């Protein structure tokens, strides 16, 4: 993504007097135009970069400028490496690994062992069990479109099952609640919308149609945040004693409240969505939802439908 590409360019320029924009574009698999936008961003951050014209020209740091090696501490560098490795669990790019290697190269030898220990203490794995090659392909394609500021189009199925063709200006990839979303300006609706990547089909880049990035209004930004934030009611579970191990596994021993009849209560706030319904049903018949009542009714209805399917089993 853009952040690690900017850091990679800075590190590269610290180690080389000059490099051509075409070489940077090929290295990071983006357009030359994108590289020059990156250079403008780095300049705006206070790191002076100069473009030299001519046969032996290129891009380099301003003469006499040196980036303080201590601008980032080892702890801060370790945090960046941990974040990159975690992002790579669901969205892997060759640039991620190259940047990790470059950051490792600036750590002094006497601190290397301690640095490696710090970067291997935590890994946040965003990837689903079994992987998802289709999701990774969409992320890579959308990242390319974001870098080049070009339109994308796709077939979209919303939560109500309505199918439509969309042409959009991609602005931001968002990972929220185990799901990837694209924030984009929809040309059909003429407003910013959030699209769940899993609901996209036939995703294509329109390389011939570029756009100038828009700034969503505060209202549009807040509406987008609210769409990602479902209601979070407090759910009261009752676990039979024989299912206590399930409660401990999912919620932790400290969350269990004993009941006189030998069962256990757990109170937990959860975003109410399809994941929650599936999660409750996966706990089996030794677990009961006591509150809220509307959620209890939803689970009852779904359980009855599942039972009906198996009662009418036509399998031979």
From TrEMBL:
So where does this one cross the membrane? none
Give the UniProt keywords, A-Z: Transcription, Transcription regulation
Stored InterPro entries: CBASS_pafABC_assoc_protein, DeoR_HTH, HTH_11, PafC-like, WCX_dom, WH-like_DNA-bd_sf, WH_DNA-bd_sf, WYL_dom
Gene3D superfamilies assigned to the protein according to its UniProt record, in alphabetical order: Winged helix-like DNA-binding domain superfamily/Winged helix DNA-binding domain
**Where would I find the HTH deoR-type domain in this sequence?**
2-57
**Name listed for the protein in its UniProt record:** WYL domain-containing protein
């Amino acid at each position: 993504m853009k952040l690690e590409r900017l850091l990679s360019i800075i590190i590269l320029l610290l180690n080389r007097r000059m490099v051509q924009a075409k070489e940077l574009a090929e290295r990071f698999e983006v357009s030359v135009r994108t590289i020059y936008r990156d250079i403008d961003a780095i300049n705006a951050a206070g790191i002076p970069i100069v473009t030299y014209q001519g046969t032996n020209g290129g891009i380099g740091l301003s003469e006499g400028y040196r980036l303080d090696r201590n601008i980032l501490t080892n702890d801060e560098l370790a945090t960046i490496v941990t974040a990159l490795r975690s992002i790579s669990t669901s969205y892997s790019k060759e640039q991620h690994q190259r940047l990790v290697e470059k950051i490792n190269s600036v750590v002094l030898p006497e601190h290397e062992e301690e640095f490696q220990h710090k970067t291997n203490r935590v890994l946040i794995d965003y990837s689903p069990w079994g992987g998802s090659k289709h999701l990774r392909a969409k992320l890579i394609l959308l990242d390319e479109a974001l870098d080049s500021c070009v339109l994308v189009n796709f077939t979209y199925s919303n939560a109500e099952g309505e199918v439509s063709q969309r042409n959009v200006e991609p602005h931001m990839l968002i990972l929220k609640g185990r799901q990837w979303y694209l924030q984009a300006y929809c040309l059909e609706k003429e407003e910013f919308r959030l699209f769940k990547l899993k609901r996209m089909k036939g995703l294509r880049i329109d390389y011939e149609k570029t756009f100038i990035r828009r700034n969503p209004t505060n209202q549009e930004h807040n509406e987008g945040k609210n769409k990602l934030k479902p209601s979070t009611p407090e759910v009261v579970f009752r676990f039979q004693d024989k299912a206590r191990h399930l409660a401990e596994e999912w919620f932790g021993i400290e969350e269990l409240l004993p009941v006189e009849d030998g069962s256990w209560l757990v109170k937990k706030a959860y975003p109410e969505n399809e994941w929650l319904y599936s999660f409750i049903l996966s706990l089996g018949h030794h677990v009961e939802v006591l509150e809220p009542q509307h959620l209890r009714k939803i689970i009852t209805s779904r359980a009855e439908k599942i039972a009906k399917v198996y009662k009418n089993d036509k399998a031979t």
